[in-house]
UniProtKB/TrEMBL annotation:
This is Transmembrane 9 superfamily member. Keywords: Endosome, Golgi apparatus, Membrane, Signal, Transmembrane, Transmembrane helix. GO terms for biological process: protein localization to membrane; response to nematode. Belongs to the nonaspanin (TM9SF) (TC 9.A.2) family. Residues 1-26 form the signal peptide. It comes from Gossypium raimondii.
Amino acid sequence: MSKMEALKLSLIIIPLLLTSLRSIASSPDNHRYNVGDHVPLFVNKVGPLNNPSETYQYYELPFCGPDPVVQKKESLGEVLSGDRLTSALYKLNFRENKVAETLCHKKLEGDDVAKFRDAVINDFYFQMYYDDLPFWGFVGKIEEDSWTLEKKSLKYFLFKHVQFDVLYNGNQIIEVHAIGDPNQVVDITEDVGVDVQFTYSVVWNTTSAAFDTRMDRYSRASSLPIHLKIHWFSFINSVITIMLLIGLLTLLFMRRLRNDLRTFSTGDEEDDKEVGWKYIHGDVFRYPRNKSLFCAVMGVGTQLLTLVCSLFVLVCLGILYPYNRGTLCTALVILYSLTSVVAGYTTASFHCQFAETGWERSVLLAGIMYAGPLFVIGSILNVVAVSYGATAALPFGTIMVIILLYAFLTIPLLVLGGVIGYLFRSAFQSPCATKRYPREIPPLPWYRDTPCQMFLGGFLPFSAIVLELQHLYASLWGYRIFTLPSILFIMFIILILITAILSVGLTYIQLSVEDHQWWWRSVFCGGSTAIFMFAYCIYFYTRSSMSGLLQFSFVFGYNACMCYAFFLMLGTVGFRSSLMFVRYIYRAVKSE
């Protein structure tokens, strides 16, 4: 090859290499851009500030929009979260400043003005995404009419100019804000048509913040220093109080139990009255009523415990973080399907400890115990959302995806777990033989009945977690981001510990009065914390500014599902801890 031909070839190859390197170095996938590159911007939704669940598609309000409007393909989690990202006319190329750029000229008819006015009255905000960064702005503002002397009147204004402030570091975008200009507005107080020129400006500034920390500002915005100090102080105070309570209960309980075990062989009638639980050794391991239902509760409770612990692991690994669009909902759906094998195995193996036949019915109950109520409540909420035209309404395709996922992944894994549980079944380990006929339970005072024990078993754990429950509800039904998942995980562990200890104590009290029907009661006492959680949801709603049928339905519908899940989880913890305790004391008695 001659030098001239080599030179020509190099002149062809080098620009191609530079072009390919440019495309590799700058793209929306790796969030790196060159000056003038197109950066994806999507409009998402609008809604009243006081009702987080009541959101509508962005173009439900007569904003300027492209023709045609292109819907972004979204994941299952994004659809479940109510995100509906669509294309926009805004052009925010990388590091290109713009001043008073015209978005469009639009004639607003009377109906359009009325829609905007209702949005301003209800304090509507809009949400957009720029380079996967969420940001918000308000539609308009309300001012008092100072010229009216007879009575106070209000005037409503629509922002017709939006300024985008973008911060960048090198070739990456770090932060973005959208601010409606209060000096460039249009009066929409009356239902009169008006011509509006919508404009926008873009201002780029540098920052030293690193790209890896660009999501931290959303956490900082929801955890002001004063509130964070109060949060930590209250958390430490709660932990110390709980530990002291657990230590006191354990000390008193173990001392009483030692005395019971010592007085077993004395033959003293007065002492024997204090240890009535020893009389019912032939009934305490009698199988409960509704055996299949009980096994299903154990299976689903264990499944949900596994799911929650898996979520905390994902959070600790950094896979789930605030405003990672749709990942939480996606993780919940996938993990519920995958952990169904745990439900099937636990249900079948526990059932086969009582009988080798009929485990299929227990597994079937486990498959619909939580998914059934969730599907019914979800269907009702979807009907309400459709009637409102809200983004929370699931499209038909999404509903079919969920049904197919349940039919072809959840159910097969549930059955697989059931088969494994049946194949590896084992006999029920009871230290004492069960008598043929049950012993009669003596009459008990009202304060030893199930409702009173449920109140005690639920109130103490609830009082330990009420602070974190407030922050959790503020995150679910507000705009506060829960920024300390480690604290939430610690409180979850403490909740399990105190539930287990109280369940053991209440079971011991029940057995001491010769009441051997403790199986179901340990589930009810352990899960009763969920009743207080739902009651606190009612209190939280009445103290908030939320209103309307849609928001009311979503708050109480989804909280009912969440509290039901906690009932199953904590009920399982209550029974498992009580079973370990009962086996321990009767094994100790048998050894004497």
